[in-house]
Fold this sequence. Notes:
Blueprint: H1 9-15, H2 18-24, E1 44-48, E2 54-57, E3 61-62, E4 70-71, E5 81-85, E6 92-96, E7 103-108, E8 119-122, E9 127-131
Antiparallel strand pairs: 1-2, 1-9, 3-4, 4-8, 5-6, 6-7, 7-8
Amino acid sequence: MSYKVTKSESEWKAELSPEEYRVLREKGTERPFTGELYENKEEGVYSCAACDVDLFSSEHKYYTGCGWPSYWGELESASIERKLDLTHGMVRTELLCSNCGGHLGHAFNDGPADKGGVRYCINSVSMKFRANK
Length: 133
């Protein structure tokens, strides 16, 4: 897929922290229960840490106990890209920022049934938070 924001790996390395680079560009995963945004309960918007495109609203966030921020839906404007991920002996749906291709996390079919049944499990380091004013 072609992305609106494209940079060389050296440009990404210069702009992102080592952990952001490992997760967003190398498809890593942060350790559970360690992310800065995991327990965030403020109202606002979560955006991609690499390109600032808005992804999720705090209205979509809910507690699952899985160790990563979880959402039952994305912002309509986010257009998050989905890819089949067969790594680590699992069948999962990888979620990527459709604006820059950054790895965000995975989607699972164990979300709230009344909200569509999908759980977006997102690495905290893949996002920035902007509180409502």
